[in-house]
Amino acid sequence: MSGTSSSPAAASAAAPLAGRHALVTGGARGIGAAVALELARLGASVTITGRSIEALEARRDELRAATGRPVHAVRMDVTDPASVEDACAHARRLLGPPAILVNNAGAAESAPFARTDLALWRRMHDANATGAFLCSRALLPDMLAAGWGRVVSIASTAGLRGVPYATAYTAAKHALVGLTRALALEVARSGVTVNAVCPGYTDTALVAGAVATIVAKTGRTAEEARAELVRGNPQGRLVRPEEVAAVVGWLCLPSSASTNGLALPIDGGELA
Ligand SMILES: NC(=O)c1ccc[n+]([C@@H]2O[C@H](COP(=O)([O-])OP(=O)(O)OC[C@H]3O[C@@H](n4cnc5c(N)ncnc54)[C@H](OP(=O)(O)O)[C@@H]3O)[C@@H](O)[C@H]2O)c1
Question: What does pTM read for this prediction?
């Protein structure tokens, strides 16, 4: 079946994702919240998931008010297989089978390699790679049955190049890019596309945490630490969450059906 076919009747130029249910992991804040807003603006009904139900419900109310779309908040820890299964089943009951999955949940911890223990290695892989595997495994069968679907994972420029003092995070994001490329080929004839976006440093709580770590470990000021992160971006600034969300929204459009297996930098030219 063609990836551009089987548009729900409600879809229109103004709301090309109308009739589609999108599930966004880690949707309460940062890049995930911006993605949820963009997909709702494009017409999708949206389930946002994460570990903090209070934060999710607050964001859900904002999304409903801003877009008028059906939005639900469901608790999910992507590192826990039972939690992923339960949350996906709950989301399916609320809004029907998700046709769009955005694997956004993730965490970033840094450490010199000599101080990277097995627990840190596992935390990074569980949050950034295994979570996407579990969510994709839970939701892909519905997409394949429908003959249409979009899986977009939020990887990182660290999924495409080496980042010193972040071996565990870097390896996990490379794993996420590998998952994306292999799965994209496996489902290429199904109407489902599988892509990743690879942001550079983006203005969210995650970067605020990185700045705090640099300050604590080096004694530099927060301004110096932020400048250090920005230095790698040729545009001389952090990426904005809405800029990542705009690309994710585009990848989810029916008209993006030929874009499959991509790991697209959104980095102001960092990897150019
Ligand atoms: N900011 C950057 O510079 C940057 C650059 C490249 C890639 N990224 C990637 O972009 C994604 C979003 O990051 P962000 O910058 O928006 O960071 P953020 O503000 O810290 O958001 C991370 C989100 O992931 C959720 N999350 C974390 N662990 C989870 C778990 N075990 N189960 C379920 N949800 C979990 C968090 O919600 P709860 O804590 O409530 O669970 C939160 O909503 C991440 O995958 C990150 O690696 C970020």
Answer: 0.97
